[in-house]
Amino acid sequence: MEFFVDPNRCIGCQACVQACSECETHKGHSMIHLEYVDRAHSVQTAPVVCMHCDSPTCAEVCPADAIKRTADGVVQTARKPRCIACNNCVLACPFGVPKMETEFKLMMKCDMCYDRTSAGKRPMCATVCPSQALFFGTREQIEQLRPRSNAVNRFVFGDQTITTKVNMMVPKYGRAEYVDVTSAMGEQTIGKNITLNILMDGMYNEEDVQ
Amino acid sequence: MRQLDRETITIPPDGRPENVQPRWRKDFPIDWPQDNYVARRDFTKFMVLTSLAFAVGQLWIAAQNFFRKRRGELPMNRIATVDQIPVGGLLNFSYPTANDKCVLVRSDAQTFVAYDQRCSHLSCAVVPKPSENRIDCPCHEGVFELSTGLPIAGPPRRPLSRIKLEVRQGAIYATEIEKRAI
Q: What ipTM was predicted for this assembly?
């Protein structure tokens, strides 16, 4: 059984977020991120769960030796007696998964519902996702269900190549996406710059207001 | 599903094999099983060193006892004559060296008691009060019983060191210090 994330199919219903925050181990705190891809221009959302890297960057940068990976390859929430709430993992994770819960002074992250998956059940988010953008099943199942998609678990961030336990579904015949983040660092972020002409010209002229 | 060797599941970022990785990677493993793993050899080493430390401690105590006996007995000093001290009177003296201040009390006609004057709490000089049958420490209001030197109030937990006395032919001699823990 493997986890497959297909952001194309996400409809932004927030069911996964609600389901995640119902969990008894972190009640009220959702460990899944539902990101808007380009909020000003589109309603497209993408769910972000922990990818459970083979070489977890969060654990590599942890100065307190708090982030551990269990024998089945699941990277766990920081161990409470060790975590010093330094935020290193939050800054270092290339997928932006770890969350600093300042209330508990503890880094908490998606652990693929360890209590469920270790007992053979599907993670909560995958059970509730109506469009199955979050899918938990065997590789044969996903190949049968999504013949036009490929499961990818290798990502390149600069000089760092990451292989993950969780798979990302990409179009079968597409080419690899290349995003140059550093070249765009000088630009203003799109999220803050609303370019749609939803405000009519002269809508808020002083005469009209009076 | 990818099958990885359980001993080397976490691949270091540079991808090189484990034997060329720096030593700290072994000490701070990312994998949970390795992090919780205590080698039988490490445990045995811990047990052997701890019991060795206990054994050496026992020898140390024995050696201390031996050297204390070798140091010999304290001198017998003449302090005063019985007639010099009235009933309820005090006398300051030094025993066994000039720096060890002690105090002698005649609580009644037949009874003499002497204590090291240092309070067992923080070594302030204690003040005997024979009329009230107690010894006071002015620093932290510690109180000792006059007849035994046991603490009865305040911060002191241990009794005062008692000086053993002997009366011979109308003179008082200090013969020994009795250091007491309880």
A: 0.73
